[in-house]
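Re: Re: ligand-bound prediction request (bumping)

Still looking for help on this. To restate: I need the protein modeled with zinc ion bound, output as structure tokens. Inputs repeated here so nobody has to scroll up.
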Amino acid sequence: MIVFDLSCDGGHRFEAWFRSSSAFEEQGRQGLLVCPHCGSSEVAKAPMAPAVPVKGNARADAPAKREQETTSQGGALPPAIREAMQKLARLQAETIKQSTYVGDRFAEESRAMHYGEKDKALIHGKADAKEARDLLEEGITVAPLLIPFTPPDETN
Ligand SMILES: [Zn+2]
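Reply:
Sorry for the wait, this slipped through. Here it is.
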């Protein structure tokens, strides 16, 4: 097996294993090489990282190096997860459009609605972990926003 560092035309780097150097070229010709980050099939061997065939007797020092590479790619997400995150981000954006931003008054507003002092409405705002826990203990449903969100009063 040979591992190649590959990169796509979008600048993503990833590595892939091939049976042989010719298997890599063959898959490339057939358009079977696809970037796992963006799906681009404009994939070539990454510059600056010459492909080194891993021979049986060269395996000894390979695992440590490969672990390092994996760590450095920690920010990359498999396409399925990326798609799910995008879907989630869209849903969250839709929800926020129908929701009122209450900032630091989140806990206060949530309680007011829960105890019937205010009409129920969808709100979002700031709560620290303790506030969120207190609300949950009082039986008030709160959920963290899963996608980073910039509060309107912090945009500049
Ligand atoms: Zn890519």
